[in-house]
């Protein structure tokens, strides 16, 4: 079993390249945002909560633009399912990616679920969001293991606004380090 180490704020995010609904592709390390990058992971076409969330993001697309935040809304859905989302949901103002490779998603610390309903694909990503600085370093994130209790659009926009206006640094940057006995090494936490 592979041990997954979560991304820590301040670390450079792994590259990400996904196809886009409507054509083309999106590559993380090829972006040049004015302020921040938002990578917003949604479960896929089967998820009613995701539809509601992405439609709210679509209504708030102007807020992202005025903040200088470039955003990608991405799932592991197939092209067919992603194109159905793009056609049936009100997401015309969003950049929507699909086909995020599950192994690559694991490197980001994402949770993966197997289908429990006929409408779900065999495997799919659970919701998350990542806020990255212009150098692709993780500023903040939230990774969910289920669709409920995810941070709302307003809360994420307010947090990004605060970060931009106050030049607020990433928090939670202290690595988890164990000593030879398996105990937490607090010298890393103390900066020594």
How would you characterize this protein structure?
The protein is an alpha/beta fold. It has a single domain (33-167), classed as Glutaredoxin (3-Layer(aba) Sandwich), CATH 3.40.30.10. Helices cover 28% and strands 19% of the residues. The chain has 6 helices and 9 strands, in the order βββααβαβαββββαα. The chain has helices at residues 48-59, 61-67, 79-88, 102-107, 153-166, 186-189, and strands at residues 17-19, 25-27, 36-41, 70-74, 96-97, 112-114, 123-125, 128-133, 138-143. It has a 5-stranded mixed beta sheet, with helices on one face. A two-stranded antiparallel ribbon has the order 1-2. The radius of gyration is 17 Å and the shape is globular. The chain starts with 16 loop residues before the first strand and ends with a helix. The model has no long low-confidence stretch (mean pLDDT 91).
**Total number of helices:** 6
Average pLDDT across residues?
91
Q: How much strand content do the residues show?
A: 15-25%
The CATH homology group name: Glutaredoxin
Broad CATH class: Alpha Beta
Largest sheet: 5 strands, mixed
Shape: globular
Query: Which residue ranges are poorly predicted, with pLDDT under 50 across at least 5 consecutive positions?
Result: none
Spatial strand sequence of the major β-sheet: 5-4-3-8-9
Provide the number of structural domains. 1
Helix content: 25-40%
**Total strands:** 9
Strand pairing plus helix content: what structural class?
alpha/beta
- Return the CATH architecture: 3-Layer(aba) Sandwich
The span between the termini is 32 Å
């Amino acid at each position: 079993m592979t041990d997954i180490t979560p991304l820590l704020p301040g670390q450079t995010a792994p590259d990400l390249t996904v196809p886009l609904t409507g054509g083309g592709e999106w590559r993380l390390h090829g972006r040049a945002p004015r302020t921040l990058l938002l990578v917003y992971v949604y479960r896929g076409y089967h998820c009613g909560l995701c539809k509601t969330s992405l439609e709210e993001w679509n209504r708030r697309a102007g807020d992202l633009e005025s903040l200088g935040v470039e955003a990608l809304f991405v799932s592991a859905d197939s092209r067919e399912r992603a194109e159905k989302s793009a056609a049936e949901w009100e997401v015309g103002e969003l950049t929507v990616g699909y086909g995020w490779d599950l192994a690559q998603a694991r490197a980001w610390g994402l949770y993966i679920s197997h289908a429990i309903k006929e409408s779900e694909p065999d495997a799919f990503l659970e919701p998350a969001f990542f806020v990255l600085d212009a150098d692709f370093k993780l500023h903040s994130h939230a990774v969910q293991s289920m669709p409920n209790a995810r941070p709302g659009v307003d809360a994420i926009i307010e947090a990004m606004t605060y970060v931009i206006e106050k030049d607020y640094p990433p928090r939670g940057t202290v690595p988890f380090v164990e000593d030879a006995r398996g105990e937490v090494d607090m010298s890393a936490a103390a900066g020594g």
